[in-house]
């Protein structure tokens, strides 16, 4: 059995690590010139979105032998709507850095991988399929899955982000759900360290946003963050993504091809993150290849999480700033504590169950 992994991102490297632990050495093909050769940005792993798993870093190491060191354990989250503010405290998850940094998750996983990585690869999926018995497609987005007619695109999103310098509390992250800054989207502030942080805006490419210019939104949001933090926040790096596809594969496996990571559809539609699911998809593909499970069956909970998250995304698109204010206001106090700290409740599942009929009526 000869296995090719197409992509050296989170899912591809997690797949390689797991295969190696079971005596199989794959060959990895990466189109960039090094692991993590992409823009730098901050991301979070929030336990509210990984239930029933409460500590995903511990879970990855203890259950799957995948070891990651996050930037920080998030102890405080500040949520803003147009007129309201909620502060949630306690162990909420983890923050981390992605991209061309030695401490990024991609770089950490690469150091755990012994398999050969062919950088600057121009190999196509078709070429790999004709040479190897199995192909793990881990290309980082749904483009190839779309080409193979196996991807349901639900919407696209445009993102603008920067790295700034200042003095930060690495244990605190902030989010703005204010449609004046990001219509039907959201904004994040995520520290990489005590000295660097990521600020970003993400907006879905809906018909309602057809005339919206993300750079004009940025001109209003960036000064707001500077004012809120009472710092100049000089920019040291920036990136912009246009129309990134959010969707999910109809089939997780087709023949001897396994779709993993964002190529499968592990990015959550609601707030955009999906690192834990991405890594698990790579592990699960390896389990199937090693005869330790069936990939389609193992992926069912991740598929359901995506669908639940999509319900929340569709609900968000029907709210106004007044509705967002009511939600943020309700999170300050009892309901915030209940939602973020009760380990037995899966908020995505519960919210999706109650909101799904409402979405159908609206549609």
How much helical structure, as a percent, in the residues? 25-40%
Q: Give a quick account of the main beta sheet: strands, pairing sense, barrel closure.
A: 8 strands, mixed
Find the CATH superfamily.
FAD/NAD(P)-binding domain
Radius of gyration: 20 Å
Give me the secondary-structure category. Answer: alpha/beta
What's the topology here?
Elements: E1 3-6, H1 10-21, E2 27-29, E3 41-46, H2 56-64, E4 72-80, E5 85-98, H3 105-110, E6 116-118, H4 125-131, E7 134-137, H5 143-147, E8 151-165, E9 172-176, E10 186-191, E11 196-204, H6 214-229, E12 235-249, E13 253-254, E14 257-259, H7 275-289, H8 295-298, H9 300-316, H10 321-331, H11 334-341, H12 347-362
Helix pairs in contact: 1-7, 9-12
Which terms would index this structure?
363 residues, FAD/NAD(P)-binding domain, eight-stranded mixed beta sheet, six-stranded mixed beta sheet, globular
Explain what you see.
With 363 residues, the chain is α/β, with parallel strands linked by helices. It has a single domain, classed as FAD/NAD(P)-binding domain (3-Layer(bba) Sandwich), CATH 3.50.50.60. The chain has helices at residues 10-21, 56-64, 105-110, 125-131, 143-147, 214-229, 275-289, 295-298, 300-316, 321-331, 334-341, 347-362, and strands at residues 3-6, 27-29, 41-46, 72-80, 85-98, 116-118, 134-137, 151-165, 172-176, 186-191, 196-204, 235-249, 253-254, 257-259. An 8-stranded mixed β-sheet has the order 3-5-4-9-10-11-8-12. A 6-stranded mixed β-sheet has the order 6-2-1-7-14-13, sandwiched between helices. Helix 1 (10-21) runs parallel beside helix 7 and helix 9 packs across helix 12 (347-362). The mean pLDDT is 92.
């Amino acid at each position: 059995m000869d296995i090719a992994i197409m992509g050296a991102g989170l899912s591809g490297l997690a797949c390689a690590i797991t295969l190696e632990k079971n005596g199989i050495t794959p060959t990895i093909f990466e189109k960039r010139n090094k692991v993590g050769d992409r823009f730098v940005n901050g991301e979070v792993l929030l336990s509210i979105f990984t239930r029933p798993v409460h500590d995903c870093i511990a879970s990855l190491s203890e259950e799957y032998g995948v070891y990651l060191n996050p930037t920080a354990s998030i102890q405080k989250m500040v949520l803003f709507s147009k007129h309201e503010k909620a502060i949630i405290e306690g162990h909420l998850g983890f923050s981390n850095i992605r991209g061309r940094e030695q401490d990024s998750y991609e770089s950490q996983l690469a150091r755990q991988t012994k398999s050969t990585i062919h950088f600057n690869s121009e190999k196509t999926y078709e070429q790999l399929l004709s040479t190897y018995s199995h192909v793990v497609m881990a290309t980082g987005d749904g483009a190839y899955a779309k080409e193979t007619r196996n991807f349901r695109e639900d919407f696209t999103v445009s993102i603008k982000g920067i790295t700034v310098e200042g003095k930060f509390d690495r244990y605190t992250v902030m989010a703005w759900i204010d449609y004046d800054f990001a219509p039907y989207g959201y904004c994040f502030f995520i520290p990489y360290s005590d000295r660097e942080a990521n600020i970003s805006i993400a907006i879905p490419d809906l018909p309602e946003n057809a005339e919206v210019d993300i750079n004009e939104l940025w001109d209003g949001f960036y000064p707001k963050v500077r004012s809120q933090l009472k710092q100049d926040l000089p920019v040291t790096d920036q990136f912009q993504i246009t129309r990134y596809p959010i969707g999910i594969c109809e089939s997780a496996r087709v023949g001897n091809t396994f779709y993993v990571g964002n190529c499968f559809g592990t990015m959550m539609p609601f707030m955009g993150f999906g690192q834990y699911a991405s890594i698990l998809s790579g592990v699960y593909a390896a389990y199937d290849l090693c005869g330790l499970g069936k990939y389609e069956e193992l992926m069912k909970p991740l598929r359901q999480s995506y669908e639940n998250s999509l319900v929340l995304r569709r609900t968000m698109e029907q709210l106004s700033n007044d509705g967002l204010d009511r939600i943020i206001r309700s999170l300050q106090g009892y309901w915030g504590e209940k939602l973020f700290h009760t380990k037995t409740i899966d908020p995505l599942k519960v919210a999706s169950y109650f909101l799904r009929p409402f979405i159908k009526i609206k549609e």
